[in-house]
Amino acid sequence: MTLHKEGKGLLFGIGTILLAINAFIYLLAGTGTAFYIVLGLSIVLYALVLNFFRYEDREHPLAAEANTVVAPADGKIVVIEEVDEQEILGCRCLQISVFMNVFNIHVNWFAVNGLVEYVSHHKGRFLAAHLPKSSTDNERSAVVQRTSAGHRVLTRQIAGAVAQRIVTYPKVGDQGRINQNLGFIKFGSRVDVYLPLGSEVCVSLGQKVEGNITLLAKMPE
Known about the structure:
This protein is of the alpha+beta class.
């Protein structure tokens, strides 16, 4: 387990601020009750942020198979349903959504192998990410890939009530691959994956999944 690159600057800044606060309390009051309370709270806060930005390399054994769909994030399955995705794909799809709480690793992974055809970012609200309207109302980024079988797969990163920044790595023309990072969402969020109808779902509602480890679905050949 290592530290993700997205957290290094923030952790340095938070550490510097907490160190300055504790130094000020020490100079003002010495090692009294106030100092130990602030020190304890500082350690807990820093540990929580450090835990949020933890990272580990992962490889899926079926990464080379064209129809494989892996979980794009750690979290819990909150949606499995057919929907009309009119904003980008303009067709009926199978939507599978993963909700991440603040204790999950927040790295996002490519769910499928395919050419990146479309990347967008939309500003919006910061509703709780488990709500259905968060997919269309919240701050969000979208990546569309075309697989070797011709399927168009949309992965949408959605900010939550706490998340204030979405990072999306791929650009149009890139080859997105399973085992690669797609991006990062800071502090609580969700990821929606829109698959072609006829895909075989390999998870169940409420199931806990691990990004780039859990097999999410298999697309039609």
